[in-house]
């Protein structure tokens, strides 16, 4: 067992190995140099956000300010709005139900004032981040299943992915069924999940 001070250290290492600082695939040398130079000059708090982004959840079920949630695929629920702050990007993501309600214009009806307030809250919080941060991050507003959602999907822990499901013995039919049921939380990636990463670390620690 790790001490309290080191209990979250492994998950920071997991997100660091997936970050722009170590992963150079699909990034130009200039981009990689830029990200690393900003990290070297950043404060501790900003550096922590760069390595493990902050994720906030907005929903009808909670009262008061938005709630921090785990940076995990299971957080991508159809009835919530998520705000991701990765320092370089600020992403506002709408779940499938929220997106459908907005497309149908419910937020413009007086009887759905609570929906209008729910949609407005993450936009206001994102504006505060954009106004106060330098260099100014890229702002992305996206929906479940949209192409821009990749900015969020690339950061969350793929706790549910096709590789993991295949290893657990699910056939192709079951794989497609699970994918449809899970929606956006089912991420198509070859990257290992945090659980697999931790299990491997434990195995190496025991062997040594």
Outline:
The chain is an alpha+beta fold and 208 residues long. It has helices at residues 9-17, 29-41, 44-51, 96-103, 113-132, 150-153, 162-167, 172-182, 194-207, and strands at 54-58, 67-68, 81-85, 89-94, 138-143. A hairpin with an 8-residue loop joins strand 1 and strand 2.
Explain the overall architecture.
Belongs to the SEC23/SEC24 family. SEC23 subfamily. It is a peripheral membrane protein. It comes from Toxoplasma gondii. GO terms for molecular function: GTPase activator activity; metal ion binding. By secondary structure, this protein is an alpha+beta fold. It folds into two domains: 52 residues, Sec23/Sec24 helical domain (Four Helix Bundle (Hemerythrin (Met), subunit A), Up-down Bundle); 113 residues, 3-Layer(aba) Sandwich (Severin), CATH 3.40.20. The protein is 45% helix and 12% strand. The chain has a five-stranded mixed β-sheet. It is globular and about 65 Å long. About 7% of the residues have low confidence.
